[in-house]
Amino acid sequence: MLRRVSVGVRLWIVVLIPTVMIVVVGGLSVLINRQVSIGSDSYQQIVSAKDLSADILPPPEYIVETQLTVMQLSTTTEDTTVLTVRLSRLEAEYTQRHAYWEQNLKDPSCARPCSRSRTRRSSST
To answer: Is the pTM higher than 0.70?
Structure first.
């Protein structure tokens, strides 16, 4: 079939096919780059997951400091005003951050650990 085609047409085919391939690959690269670039939905999900991890590990969403304060309150015989103020501050921080994450988490799989800890906290008080 290609034996009947002139050399000029063969040359155009050899040049045209790689050019079309390069354009297609370039277009796909631009499309994929827009989907994962800073400011895209994917990027926002990554940032939210990172922020959630930061909030769960240290206080406010991690309640170890609150548990320590409660234990100190239960065992101390001195003035408990400082510990009571700290406990109130920790509870306010926890409630504020928990409300923030309930409103801003888009991925339900990330929200599950947060809501379970809230449920456990509510049932134990």
So the answer is: no
